[in-house]
Amino acid sequence: MAGRLGIDFGTSNTVLALCDEGRREGIPVHVPDFGHPYESAGERISVVPSLIHYTQDGRRWIGEQVRQQDLSSSERTFSLIKRYVANRSPVNRRIDGRQISHFEAGRDFLSAVLLFAAEELQLRDEEVALTVPVEAFEHYIDWLTGVAEAAGFPRFRLIDEPAAAALGYGTHIQPGNIYLIFDFGGGTLDVAVALIEDEQRLESGRRCRILGKAGKELGGSSLDAWLMQEVLRQNDRHDSDDEVRRVSAELLGGCRMAKERLSFDERAEVKVAIPGTGTTLSAEFTRSQFDDLLDQHGTFSQIDQTIRRALNAARDRGYGEEHIRSVLMVGGSSMIPSVQKTVQRIFGKDKVRMERPLDAVARGAAAFVAGIDFYDHIQHDYAIRWLNPQKGDYDYHVLVKRGTLYPTQEPLARMTVKATHPGQTELGIAIFEMSQQLERGNGESMELVFDPSGAARIVKVTPAEQDRRSCFWVNEPSPTFLQANPPAQQGEARFAVEFGIDAHKRLLITARDLRTGEVTLRNSPVVKLT
To answer: Is CB count within 10 Å lower at the N or C end of the chain?
Structure first.
């Protein structure tokens, strides 16, 4: 059953799809050991919970194995891995005498899924497609790349989750039309406006070009945390209470199940016993009460704002809301009825499609690696850091603006590089990736975290931490790449440099030594852009 595999590694669930030779779309893969079946659009798909548990005897349980053995709330179980990795969380857990980070747990989880798929599907040298969030930083892409290589998959491709979703709804899209992808998953809300190119048909299939994107740190795990806070409020308890801490992960799991039930039932109950005390934390929610809770936290207004930002970005390219043919709903949180109604109020009921909320991204990834192509643009601003003597602090000068199409034909920017001390032989440029579309609001925001014991709690994310997450030094390991021979003098304008982007989204640099006239670098890749 060899073919091209697409993997959607999600905050809550991971989904696999395969595109066999001769097919034009991905087909969901059943993962009997790790996943549980789910009905979607009349098809039975397999969803793998993004969980990994480390046993005392050295084994690892993956996905549904963790839930079947009631280990989701164990301090040895890692969940919400994708969010921790994306945020470069320093949190570790001490298990059996060693510290395990979410980066390691995520590597172990994805490696197990990849290796299982390779054996089960008889994959040999076929390429694999891995999906990345619309706002993914370079460090996340580097981590994902490292996982694939370490698992023995040297041939792989990456694709934006919104673009994969557009391809995953391939049976419903038509060339020349504009589509909005509404991806509301476990960790983030991502909205993208995509154009299916119609000026030419290639053997590799249709081309999907992203016109506008916007993201929000809002997902199913946020909703779970709000439900947990409400349960604690109704029981006059706090997440810092010792008794609550012992059952916090179990309580959070109960809130997650209640949230999922409320997408289909009018009522759901959360009930968790505190061992050794004879007391129970319990609460009942109607769908109306759940909707009120979402409203209190501004969910529906945030959905509207994120959609508007994506639409505005597309409008800057000449495409308005009236051009959108259909809205494609993906992600588990998009199954919430009030969320669907919010989107339907904006675009009209007839435009909103909800057939593939769980597997569209994986399907599209499989189709992409099998040959279905798309155009894209650079998602983030990329800037150089320089010391402003008037301020006595660093400032940033943008080299690449988000929305830039690639590959570029003309230089994006030109600049000179000066030496900072006498006899300098190595000069460089500090290049930073700046996130500007992922809004976090003003002041402090709240985030669900797990402490080293596995207890769940709500903490504040300070403005300083928000800034750290929104600005990433992409070439920190190798900031100096210009060699001055003979050595430069202090203050000497030594190199003239030009920047461009190639077809692989790599920032290129051409450098000329102003003293010798020699071109020392010509279209040399410096960093990978997203």
So the answer is: N
